[in-house]
């Protein structure tokens, strides 16, 4: 049963799909634990059959994993989250703890984490009783509370998002909606520029929650792997774009051209609509087709063309994969997600912020995009936190993605980081 007070209304939605994350299918990187490894060293006094039933339940509900302590003597279980490259212990419980007490203790940990994050970042999260309307004519979509693993990933993203997760005046944080239902066939995340409460918002599709991506950049050795931290930070970055003026038509045109994109006005169902075409090194123009989930070659009017350059239907047009389009692009995107200039820009900013390694790669391989991201990032920081009496920024972003005071020591730290990144 939904209550009117729990309804929220979303506006101006965007989302990303597994394919645009560079995944081969919609399954994502599954990280479901191998529970038999937990029991392999257990002595006879450990009730493995009981915990074979309990552990999948608490993993599904809280995102919590487990390991055995003192398996040959009086067995206990260590409950933890694998995040930032380490096991973050939450609880140690006796093997005979009741299921009710186990859930009660984990609920306490989860509620405390939510309270801590709300105080530190001014963010709010949905509960199991909330719902959201994407359109006033549609039925509300049921929400849920976050899992602990999702909160740890979100905490990492929030540390690097300052001030993109905040309202313009810096007083309100993002409202995060964890949905029980899918919005799209293969799931994704969507950013909301404004909720009914007047704060930025973020929707986490149920499928994204089920995909169990690696939580943070430190939790994978694959530089091309998409992490939950990266996805969340990317979506928060869209609010930063709004602050920098992407919503103004003249700025959208200017920013997009800087990234190698050209606007084309087309008539779709009797309405004028802007289509963005990506320029290639050999002078062709490409458009991303969500219907085909591929890139198609177009003329300067945005019309699909075949391999002879003749206008044709989208289904018969010359097609390219995301990897092929990325290689051909006049300005090479740093990731495989660049379906339009706004998304490409968000990926550049996210790569700049998310980790020291990603920032170094951006500087080394995409120096022009790096300088653009650094300048725009500083501009957004200045808009929220201001300048000092000498007209210089009060805060800057260090190589780890955190905001720090602008001191000689911190400036030298960034200079040293950039020199070393350029030498590799």
How would you sum up this structure, described in words?
With 424 residues, the protein is α+β, with helices and mostly antiparallel strands. The protein has twelve helices and 17 strands. The chain has helices at 35-39, 48-62, 99-121, 148-161, 206-211, 228-243, 249-258, 322-328, 341-354, 356-365, 367-385, 408-423, and strands at 13-15, 65-69, 76-83, 86-94, 124-125, 131-132, 141-144, 175-179, 189-192, 201-204, 261-268, 271-279, 285-289, 294-298, 319-320, 395-397, 403-405. Helix 4 (148-161) runs parallel beside helix 6 (228-243), helix 10 (356-365) crosses helix 11 and helix 10 (356-365) crosses helix 12 (408-423). The chain is globular, with a radius of gyration of 23 Å. It starts with 12 loop residues before the first strand and ends with a helix.
Structure summary:
The chain is about 35% helix and about 20% strand. It is of the alpha+beta class. Residues about 1-30 have low confidence and may be disordered.
Describe the SSE topology.
Layout: E1 13-15, H1 35-39, H2 48-62, E2 65-69, E3 76-83, E4 86-94, H3 99-121, E5 124-125, E6 131-132, E7 141-144, H4 148-161, E8 175-179, E9 189-192, E10 201-204, H5 206-211, H6 228-243, H7 249-258, E11 261-268, E12 271-279, E13 285-289, E14 294-298, E15 319-320, H8 322-328, H9 341-354, H10 356-365, H11 367-385, E16 395-397, E17 403-405, H12 408-423
Helix pairs in contact: 3-4, 4-6, 6-9, 9-10, 9-11, 10-11, 10-12
